[in-house]
Amino acid sequence: MRRVVISLGGSILVKGDNDADHIRELIDGLTSLSDEMRFIIVTGGGRLARDHISLGRSTGADEATLDSLGIQATRMNAWLVLGAFKGKDVYPRPFTSIEEAIMGASSHKFTIGGGTHPGHTTDAVSALIAEMWRADLFINLTAVDGAYTDDPDNNRSAKRIPKMTSKELVDLVSNTTRGAGSHSVMDPLAAMVIHRAGIESRILEGRDVPNLLRCMRGEDMHGTIVIPGE
Question: Any residues with CB less than 8 A from the CB of 4 and at least 6 apart, and which?
């Protein structure tokens, strides 16, 4: 049975646009593959985390405290996804550590959680889980349809990269701003972990569930394929 880790961006999980329908579609799609695959899903904090971190920063909270605010937001989103599984073969609570995630995946088809401790984004947590679990595939579901040569929101000339090596991804994201609430196509630590672990990865637009299912079936997909190597 293939092991798949999904980093599910909070900004596409709770977008304010048919969120309930999207969550149900995502769960139905993943469940359709559960005879062939086992999943660990890590939810990001999205707007909930950013709003609380911004408010906390404005009142003078330190970065560790802001990280803790963000972690609680990711776990709220994990509960949201967990509740939608309606008794399917899912670990009964959001995991709070990497070790618990792997333990849950040993006996359940779906294991869901958010952040684990201050200083690590949910991308990084996902990558570390993928490394320790020896996952077959790491999927980053984000707000853009793949990795780009530059930020497509700020540079209309930016080009999507259909295929790249894990080292090229590390180089691409190496200048990402760090700190509580920061985000990019992938966290730099996550990219480095994926590179050293040699795990096949995909970067996809998170709202396109049919494209995600094609990706996991090994069919043609729209996004970025990240292959291990220099």
Answer: 37, 38, 39, 40, 135, 136, 137, 138, 139, 216
- Rounded distance between C-alpha atoms, residue 74 and residue 126, angstroms: 12
Rounded (10°) CA dihedral 108, 109, 114, 117: 50
Residues β-bridged to residue 220: none
CATH of domain 2-227: 3.40.1160.10
| Encoded tokens for 206 | 């998170």
CB 10 within 8 A of CB 47: yes
Distance CA 91, CA 85 (A): 10
Q: How far apart are CA 56 and CA 66, in angstroms?
A: 6
Q: What is the pLDDT of residues 172-181, one digit of tens each?
A: 998 765 544 4
Question: Could you read off the pLDDT of 92-114 as tens digits, one per residue?
Answer: 999 999 999 999 999 999 999 99
Distance CA 78, CA 119 (A): 19
